[in-house]
């Protein structure tokens, strides 16, 4: 009975990921502007409706995971270089709750803060609408974000990098993205 239940649960997770995730965005696509996300406060949501300027979105599978914790400090360290290249805002997006994202941000900046926005997509709806959700149930317990970087002008994607292996850091590291701008 337990194995039957386990098998049914696994099938349900795979089906949920398929339903939640649309086809992967590409250069020229627009980001979802009506999907609510959170930053710093659990009871306050916002959307990217009306987003303007040149923005960088960094999708990561999970706060506090090894590769994610190795990737994001490069963006924090090179924040001024991204600004010099015309980036108005940098958003780190993860399918985690807002409390975990805030703690992760604080841990990487020793509580000093950073102008980089850490966005909690706690239901995976934003990442799913980008087509960047994958089934990470076996390792992380739930569907998570692929590792990606999007550059947008307003809500239109102008550059896109997606790691071929989600645990890798070959095309989405800060030093790989800076030359693309």
TrEMBL record:
Span of domain Redoxin: 26-178
Lineage: Eukaryota, Fungi, Dikarya, Basidiomycota, Agaricomycotina
Family: Belongs to the peroxiredoxin family. Prx5 subfamily.
Catalytic residues of the enzyme: 68
A single Gene Ontology CC term: peroxisome
The species this protein was found in: Laetiporus sulphureus 93-53
Reported function: Thiol-specific peroxidase that catalyzes the reduction of hydrogen peroxide and organic hydroperoxides to water and alcohols, respectively. Plays a role in cell protection against oxidative stress by detoxifying peroxides.
Alphabetical GO biological process terms: cell redox homeostasis; cellular response to oxidative stress; hydrogen peroxide catabolic process
Record-given protein name: Redoxin
UniProtKB keywords: Antioxidant, Oxidoreductase, Peroxidase, Redox-active center
A single GO molecular function term of this UniProt record: thioredoxin peroxidase activity
